[in-house]
Amino acid sequence: MPDPQAVETIERFRALLEESLTQIERTVSWVATRLCLTGDDADEFRSWVHEKLVEDDYRVLRGFQGRSTLATYLVAVIQNLARDYRMKTWSRWRPSAAAERLGLVALQLETLRERDGFTLDEAAEILRSNHGVRMSGPELADLAAKLPARTPVRFEGDAGVATAVSEERADRGVRESERRATLANSKEALAGALAELDVLDRLVLRMYYRSGLTIAAIAAALNLEQRPLYNRRDRCLRTLKADLEDRGLNAAEVLDAVAWLDADFKVDFGLREAKDADNEPSNQVETKAEDEP
Amino acid sequence: MTPSDPATADAELIAAFIDGRLPEDEREAFLQRLDEEPALYEVFAETVRCRDELAASSAEVVEHPRSRQSSYWRVAIAAGLVLVIGIPVLMRSLSEESYGEMLADGRLDPYLTEGWYEQPWSEMRGPTPGRRDADTAFRIGVRVVDLEVALRAGRMEDAGVLTHRLEARLGGIELTEPLRASYAELGRRLDEGIGQEEALELAGSVATLTGEYLPDLQSAYRLGVWVESGALAARSDNEELLRSSWFRRELRSLRDEQFPRGFGEELEAIAQLTAGSMTEADLEALEETFSAILGAH
Q1: Do A203 and B31 touch (CB under 8 A)?
Q2: pLDDT of the residue at B177
Q3: How far apart are the first and last CA of chain A?
Q4: What gap in Å lies between CA A141 and CA B74, rounded to an integer?
Q5: A23 Cα to chain B: minimum distance (Å)
Q6: What are phi and psi for residue A97, nearest 5 degrees?
Q7: Are B108 and B153 in contact (CB under 8 A)?
Q8: With contacts defined as CB-CB under 8 Å, which chain B residues touch A68?
Q9: Is the confidence at residue A280, as pLDDT, over 50?
Q10: How far is CA B283 from CA A59, A201, B270, in A?
């Protein structure tokens, strides 16, 4: 005979979940877009998330202690689930810091090309027809050129554009070699300079330059005033620059060598990551991407 | 991350932090963990991004009647009621009252006609090997001045266009990623409709960074700023800027550097024309000389 109190509790959680359904749907759709899922794949993801939210008598909601709003809690839970889904489905693949920084279209473009193996032409067509992207072929080629070189760019459209892209890739290859030559020294110097900042300053820079979040979003998340945050960001940049110059380095060269976009600010955490390596396969992916020619 | 149920691991801690509900000691501890645990940071950042973008898409669209805003700010500036904080490029040489007067008596009107920043010399003429970065830096200097003028005149839409172009233009110069991000942020804020005062403060801050992030292109950048400022002053009959210490100091510096663009004669002509009081003919000649320098890029 089921415990009446337990049944009532489960009913309460079910009702709570149904009240939050709209927000859950919007969050799941948002994640699906970022994972570049459409059609059946998006439906599969949606079903998987719902299954996780209700399984084991609404374990997700049972674990909620009321320390935050339910809305923010559910967003964080779904982001956890998204990360889990990504690792389960695509194993070690994860988007590059550059793609996250450059925005949704860059993220989707990289996902289609690197994760799903589409050519630039094919990816462009998918983006236009399935995701409402209006950028032209050359614009998408230009965007692709800003992403880390994991696979050669193949653009099977306009030959003139293909030539321009391949010439630019050749130039990028030379520059990439030069950058990598400076990378080792630059990383150590930047790690040292970053370590001099306080933890909140480092977080602000990371959220702004690594994750491409707006100052408004950062201010809201960290419960800080927005306007002073601009000055904080600029002050941190000046501090970094001065620190690097004190070490005898050209700040612009160092920042370019670690490309801000790919810096990940991991330079500070290499030793700690080695300890967490068993639980964090995605870290190994980041390292591998960084070391790829 | 704390090994536990993958779905809920640290989710409430992340959420409580974002909602501002963690006590100070737990907040500090969480900040430390964000610093040290990449996986935790990843979920945190995506939670922030998701919340922010969903909130933005839910928010009501607020009308920003920019034409009314522009008129309001024109009157306010003319009445000297606007206190602008920050160090815009021309603040060193052009007083606020002077700007106000120029706006109020219409001297900027002939300058600020439709498409005023779409001059032939405002765009690249095509890359020249070895000169491309310097030309780009020059253009950026020109645009920084245009942006300040647009903001001062309350032309927020023009300012938005110019900011996005600056961001795009910086793409042509390596080693400027953080600076481009700053212009991108300014562009986003202008698109969202921030006020003139805040926009000027932001633009001033970014302009200061602009000079710092072009260390090897300082001469070209400074020339762009100086030439566009001079052209503006000549076109709007503003002697104050042309006779300011900043203008003269920059002229001396550029002449001493023997700026490698063959502008020696033009710089000499400008020096002579600005030496004493300026007639209408002098100002016209100055305008032509500045246009010649701009056109040669």
Answers
A1: yes
A2: 67
A3: 64
A4: 43
A5: 9
A6: -60, -35
A7: yes
A8: 12, 15-16, 18-19, 21
A9: no
A10: 78, 49, 10
User: Which tops the pLDDT comparison, B45 or A133?
Assistant: B45
pLDDT average, residue stretch B132-138? 75
Residue A281 φ/ψ, nearest 5 degrees? -60, -25
Q: Please indicate if any CB of chain A lies within 8 Å of the CB of B249.
A: no
CA-based nearest residue to A204, from B200, B184, B86, B31: B31
Coarse DSSP helix, strand, coil percentages of chain B, rounded to the nearest 5 percent:
70, 0, 30
Residue holding tokens 């056109």? B295
Q: State pLDDT tens for residues B63-102.
A: 333 333 333 333 333 333 322 322 344 444 455 556 666 6
pLDDT per residue as tens digits for the range B247-260: 888 888 777 765 55
Asked if the model's pLDDT at residue B50 lies above 90, the reply is yes
Provide CB contacts within 8 A for A120, sequence distance 6+.
A113, A140, A141, A144, A153, A154, A155, A156
**For residue B110, how many C-alpha atoms fall within 13 Å in the half-sphere facing its CB?**
9
Q: Which structure tokens are listed for B77? A: 């500036």
Residue type, A116: D
**Is B175 in CB contact (< 8 Å) with chain A?**
yes
Helix A120-131 with A137-145: angle, nearest 10 deg:
120
Half-sphere exposure of A54 (CA within 13 A, CB side): 13
- What pLDDT, in 10s, does the model give residues A95-126? 887 788 778 899 999 999 999 999 999 999 99
* Distance in angstroms (rounded) separating the CA atoms of residues A238 and A234: 6
Instruction: Please judge whether A75 and B51 are an interchain contact, meaning their C-beta atoms are less than 8 angstroms apart.
Output: yes
Residue range B193-198: mean pLDDT, rounded: 83
| Residue of B90, B139, B169 lying closest to B293 (CA atoms) | B139
Q: Which residues contact B293 (CB under 8 A, 6 or more apart)?
A: B223, B227, B261, B263, B266
Of the candidates A130, A136, A100, A99, the residue with the CA atom closest to the CA atom of residue A36: A130
Cα–Cα nearest to A279, from B186, B40, B185, B50: B40
> B48, A64: Cβ pair inside 8 Å?
no
Contacts of B20 in chain A (CB under 8 A): 223
Is B130 exposed, middle or buried (CB count within 10 Å of its CB: 0-12, 13-18, 19+)? exposed
Residue at A43: amino acid letter: D
The residue count for chain B: 297
